[in-house]
Amino acid sequence: MPTLQWDAELATVAATNARRCIYGHDECRSTVRFPYAGQNIGLFSYYALTFTVTELITDFINDWYSEYTLTTPAFLAKHPRGYHGPDIGHFTQIVSDRTNRIGCSLVTYYDTTWINQYFVCNYALINLIGQPVYVAGIACSKCTTGCSVKYPGLCNTNEIVIAKP
C-alpha cells in the first residue's frame, strides 16, 4: 500500500470546487497528471459553536473512514457496478492501493443562519468499477522500494504508482 502524500495541484483543484460554496462533486477535477482524479466531499453546518481547523478536518476524515463498518470483503475485492447500498465510497477512496497523492481544501462560508465548513479532497485516482480497492496481503510485500520508515506497513514514498486504470 503506497503512502498517501500531499499534492499541491490536487489541492488547488479541490480549492476551486470548495470556493464555489455549492456542495457537490465537481466534474472538472482531472488534470494532465491525474486524468482520473477521485474526490471526497463533506459539509458541516452549525451555529453558536466554534471548532479548530484540526478538529474539523479530523471529524471529516474520521466520518469518511468510519464507512469501513459498512464495507464487505467482496466489495473490497471488486468495486461493483450499480452499487446502491450505504455510502462506502469515501472509505474506499481513502484506502485505495492505487493512489498515492491527495490535495484538500477547507472553505468557510456563511448563510443567514449557519456557519458552513466545506471540505474537499481530491485523489490521484478514482474508485474503479470492477477493480479491487486494494489487494490484501502481508504489509509491504508488494513494495518495490521497501517500507516507509515513518509509516511502517506502507510503502516508501518513492514507490511508483501509476494513477490510471
UniProtKB/TrEMBL annotation:
InterPro entries hit by this protein: CAP_dom, CAP_sf, CRISP-related, V5_allergen-like
Keywords: Secreted
SUPFAM superfamilies (alphabetical): PR-1-like
Keyword Cell inner membrane set for record: no
Keyword Secreted: yes
Subcellular location: Secreted
Alphabetized Gene3D superfamilies for the sequence: CAP (3.40.33.10)
Pfam family name, one: CAP
GO cellular component labels: extracellular region
SMART domains: SCP
CDD domains for this protein: CAP_euk
Major localization listed first in the record, in broad terms: secreted
SCP domain boundaries: 1-130
Protein name from the UniProt record: SCP domain-containing protein
